[in-house]
Amino acid sequence: METIPRWTRDPVPGTAEYEVPLPEGLPGAASALAAAHARVLTALSGEPAGHHDTLSVTVTDGILRLRYRTDVLDAQAAARIAGYHLTALTEPDRPTLLSEDELRFQLDELAGPERELPDRRVHELFEQRVALHPDAVAVVQDGRQWTYRELNSRANRVARALLARGLRREGVVAVVMERNPDWPAAVLGVLKAGGVYLPVEPHFPADRTARTLARADCQLVLTEPGSDGNVGRAARKLFVDTAYAEGHSDGDLGIPVTADQLAYIYFTSGSTGEPKGAMCEHAGFVNHVLAKIGDLGIGAGRTVAQTAPQCFDISLWQLVSALLVGGRTLLVGQETILDVPRFVDTVVRGRVNVLQIVPSYLEAVLAELEQRPRELPDLRCVSVTGEAVKKELVQRWFDAMPGIRLVNAYGLTETSDDTNHEVMDRVPDQERVPLGRPVANVRVYVVDEDLVPVPLGAPGEIVFSGVCVGRGYVNDPERTKAAFTDDPYRPGERLYRSGDHGRWLPDGKLEFLGRRDSQVKIRGFRVEIGEIENALLRVPGVRDGAVVVVRSAQLVAFCTGSEPVGADEVQGKLAASLPPYMVPAVVHWRERLPLTGNGKTDRKTLRALAEELDAGDSGAPETAAERRLAAAWAEVLGIHADRIGRLDHFFDLGGTSLSAVRLAVALDRAITLKDVTHHPVLADLAGLLGAPPGGR
């Protein structure tokens, strides 16, 4: 029957009611209503027997009355929820509470706009720009700069040198190089030859590098003198200088590369102890770079700062985006990044227009600007990614730089990097900074365990469909099957299950709510706790082990065994197979690990124990300099000053190179990063700091 809803105002301030007639002849209305209401609350909360203190429902004389809080729900949301109750009452076996209109809205209207992609790959779009302005500057680092013509020439010679060594279509080439002008020539050369780019950082442990090359079936390594020490003999090496000197033609190759051809592989941490290599195709790569160009305002003559390490997937768009539109890429070395004043000066001198950094580094930049205010006359857009950005940080940014846009970027390596952009020119109204809407040609669904979309505003798993979705994990069918599947709503298209939880906001933007598993972010890198724990169990003398995260950034390991092994030895063994950011800062030995009632490791107890042990008893700070330093440590490490003793070690408390940079800024450059590295104990470092004005 046709229902005619109507609105009434409840006499209780701050609430309202929505009324809708029920269909005639519903059996057992009271019990059915209770079951329907429970199902709706479960759907809205994302938890069994869900609870929702913002609404209640009653039925009187065949009228369903939904009472709701007006500070939480608007009229449109209340009408939708009333509709869920009607569906639950009239169609109890229907797999979703969503109406056909809402289901179609979520599947179609919340997707990114459709945009036709050019029938060109990234390297071909670059070649078009070379033809348009060959003598424009393409890449800059310190005193070196290469024109478009020179970069293209070197990349073509690299490509031909790779082909001369037997590179075939979709052959994997590891690029093991520092971030210098030869690096973009190497990347473009691999793509021009029809190969697959695999970044490997020179300082990664030899064991991890070997496992990465083996997993990817990599037979060729493109490298440079000084960067090849950990490569081993599993693959043939080609030094980039050798490729330049072999006399190959420097003209474009014209090798056909299709949109569905593999472009690159990025390895991320894996829960089984083995890194997993996410494979992405050229169409997704092009789509992502074009989204960056459009949303961040990258154009001819604009300068993009390349700041990310090679194994961080954002490094790729930072490297190539400006080169597709007639701009230039400014390569910023790691030593510069670790010196915030020098970094800010580099941004100013390099006339950087577009910059992307992690939120924790933006905090350091803001602290520097607050202490030494200066103009950033050319900067137009700053993007933050890799970590959740807090609203307070956004507020600080716009207080300091009201004319410079801030973009919150969200995405995963498996989805060709960022899929959502929240472009801000002011502080958002919401408590959490949203992830924004999907970029062009990207579809995002928020679903339950059965991949059925959840009600708008309800929490669920964030999954992806469209051109962004990669091919899976290289030579890893089991983990590919667990994360990649067919899109049930668009046959023939791939869907990726991210493991991230989120919800749709009323304005159609996505909000991040957290992870469903043990994956964490450390210094912007995805880290699977399981991978660290598997490496821990391979350390001689360790019988059992667990790793927890405290203060959102510090990894703490707990080990059991017949005889305790020194923390330095454990860390040294882990460093032989894990990158530095995955090595726990603290190692504790216990007789046994605490267990939950069902026999699993009690991580909640371990986290509390880690916090308690961190407090330690290393003596309270004694001098004015020690007390000042302890207060600064507390600020940058996010712990209470009372928990810091004069014999505590900065890096054992969770300090990193980045937090050491922030410490130097907080102390008005009275100490340097080098001082913190060489004198990490508080009492020793305070001796360099000296007493503040006023003495002890």
Q: What would you say this structure looks like, in words?
A:
One of its GO terms (biological process) is amino acid activation for nonribosomal peptide biosynthetic process. InterPro entries: AA_adenyl_dom, ACP-like_sf, AMP-bd_C, AMP-bd_C_sf, AMP-binding_CS, AMP-dep_synth/lig_dom, ANL_N_sf, PP-bd_ACP. This is Non-ribosomal peptide synthetase. Residues 620-696 form the Carrier domain. The model is unreliable at 1-5 and 691-696 (pLDDT under 50). Helix 5 (148-164) packs across helix 6 and helix 13 runs parallel beside helix 20 (657-666). The protein folds into 4 domains: 6-97, Gyrase A, domain 2 (2-Layer Sandwich); 122-504, 3-Layer(aba) Sandwich (Rossmann fold), CATH 3.40.50.12780; 519-615, GMP Synthetase, Chain A, domain 3, CATH 3.30.300.30; 624-689, Non-ribosomal Peptide Synthetase Peptidyl Carrier Protein, Chain A (Orthogonal Bundle), CATH 1.10.1200.10. The radius of gyration is 28 Å and the shape is globular. Helix 6 links the parallel strand 7 (172-176) and strand 8 (196-199). It has 22 helices and 30 strands. A 5-stranded mixed beta sheet has the order 15-16-17-18-19, sandwiched between helices. Strands 20, 21, 23, 24 and 25 form a 5-stranded antiparallel beta sheet that branches. The protein is an alpha/beta fold.
